[in-house]
Amino acid sequence: MTSIEGVKLVPGVLPDPACVRLTILKMLHRGKAGHLGSNMSVVEMLIGMYGAVDVAKVKNGAPDRSRILVSKGHCAAAVYGTMHHFGLLPEETIDTYFMDGSALAGHVSHVVPGVEHSTGALGHGINVAVGCAIGLRNLGAKDSLSLALLGDGELQEGSVWEAVMLASHLKLDNFIGLVDNNRISSITSTHKVIDLRPIDRRFSAFGFAVETVDGHSLAEISQAIARLRGRGRPGMIICETIKGKDVAFAENEAIWHYKTMTDQQYEEARNRLIAKIEVAL
């Protein structure tokens, strides 16, 4: 694989979240795209999800592959950036993000190789993921998972709970959801729209095995996925995250759901991430 901003990508090794964020930052700036905050909060979650499955089967479209569904479709840059770091999308493709004529739009699309389902309207991806879990069970793919990434604001959609009820009723222990609990829904606090706190107890009440983790700890996320698979019931991981993580001017700032970066802001964020990577190296 090639390098991004001078950082070497190593096949078979989970990517450094800071390297993935640097890729996402570059994509958003070049494409003059928004959703900076929403993309930065999910990086460790996506790395954990792709790291938990057989990526070669995903790339080859094997019938018994694990399925990764991103129900929070507006974090498309993070999805495509993570896929790139796992060898699923080449650099020349992600360089076209949000540009005229590109398949890489601002919401996740199934026209992109390796993407299972288009998600823009919220509350739909989890339903498809539950369907995939049923299909994998019927196929006898015992080692495969159906994983779904959801936004915390998305949990206000009624269709989410229909999927949750069915997954619980069918005891789909090959289904695991991950909630990006960054507490900001669009431009306000999530609880000011509909207060679902405590989220973990709501899923527990529906019969899910639930774990709450630091959503920026790749180790905690990976371990939670490993513990929840095959438990005899579906799992849900509540990931406590920061919207705009590692971009100082955007952290916990609701307006960065929409704003695009100036050149100066891009350079500031880029330099901070490069410094963080150099320290880690």
Topology:
Elements: E1 3-4, E2 7-8, H1 17-31, H2 36-40, H3 43-51, H4 55-60, E3 67-70, H5 76-85, H6 91-94, H7 125-139, E4 146-151, H8 158-169, E5 175-181, E6 184-185, E7 188-189, H9 190-193, H10 199-205, E8 209-214, H11 218-228, E9 235-240, H12 263-280
Parallel strand pairs: 3-4, 4-5, 5-9, 8-9
Antiparallel strand pairs: 1-2, 6-7
Helix pairs in contact: 1-5, 1-12, 3-5, 3-11
What's the short story on this structure?
The chain is an alpha/beta fold. It has a single domain (3-7, 16-280), classed as Rossmann fold.
Report on the architecture of this protein:
The chain is an alpha/beta fold and 281 residues long. It has one domain (3-7, 16-280): Rossmann fold (3-Layer(aba) Sandwich), CATH 3.40.50. The chain is 41% helix and 13% strand. The chain is built from twelve helices and nine strands. It has helices at 17-31, 36-40, 43-51, 55-60, 76-85, 91-94, 125-139, 158-169, 190-193, 199-205, 218-228, 263-280, and strands at residues 3-4, 7-8, 67-70, 146-151, 175-181, 184-185, 188-189, 209-214, 235-240. It has a five-stranded parallel sheet with strand order 3-4-5-9-8, with helices on both faces. A two-stranded antiparallel sheet has the order 1-2. Helix 11 (218-228) links the parallel strand 8 and strand 9 (235-240). Helix 1 runs antiparallel to helix 12 and helix 3 crosses helix 11 (218-228). The protein is globular. It starts with a strand and ends with a helix. The model has no long low-confidence stretch (mean pLDDT 95).
